[in-house]
Amino acid sequence: MKKIGIIGSGIVAKTLGAGFISHGYEVMLGTRDETKLSDWLAKEGEQAKVGSFNKVASFGDILVLAVKGTAAIAAIELIDSNLLSGKIIIDATNPIADAAPENGVLQFFTDQNGSLMEKLQSTFPEVNFVKAFSSVGSASMVNPSFESKPSMFICGNDETAKAKVANIVELFGWEVEDMGGAEAARAIEPLCMLWCIPGFTKNQWTHAFKLLK
Length: 213
Ligand SMILES: NC(=O)c1ccc[n+]([C@@H]2O[C@H](COP(=O)([O-])OP(=O)(O)OC[C@H]3O[C@@H](n4cnc5c(N)ncnc54)[C@H](OP(=O)(O)O)[C@@H]3O)[C@@H](O)[C@H]2O)c1
Prior knowledge:
The chain is 32% helix and 16% strand. By secondary structure, the protein is α/β, with parallel strands linked by helices. It binds NADP nicotinamide-adenine-dinucleotide phosphate.
């Protein structure tokens, strides 16, 4: 059985974890405090596991990064680097600053000529990062229900890694839009800001993006 390791214990980690299990994968969620995942573990059954970030990194054929953006680098630094060499990490994070949104617009700690995924890629060059799942709410990440398939924008430097992630994104019910190398994360990550504006200003949280062609 294919194995996915998810670095994270929040709503994104739990949702994607349940999604992978529903699609036939074995999943381990990673946290610094395993007690906080006992409910998720009990709910998801035999294919669900919980462990330290190191255990998750050695468990997963493919990893997902689903931690607070400000802690993304610190979280991966907790993992032995020899467990990361050549690994694919699906990067669902966003560089959301701790400051409050301004008129519904999230504040980022990156600027427009950089992105969190590029920082991750340059800090951990042995990893193949692929951006995905960052610009939609957790409720629609797996098997989204819209009139037509929504678009998932992905990017990353390694074509083989991107092809594997594209297969997962399609399995989860999305149309894949490959935007190119890691630099494209400069455009993909701010879609999270755009996605959240109707949420903060009108309490609308159920939309997704589609690239019309
Ligand atoms: N919420 C959504 O709908 C949504 C949608 C798209 C993308 N995203 C992005 O997905 C990511 C996860 O979001 P979330 O809402 O599920 O969770 P979150 O509350 O943003 O993050 C929780 C996770 O961050 C980890 N963390 C926090 N501080 C840490 C530190 N100093 N060192 C290591 N790990 C640390 C926690 O680890 P421990 O378990 O060890 O405490 C926990 O696993 C974020 O980057 C977010 O922007 C969220």
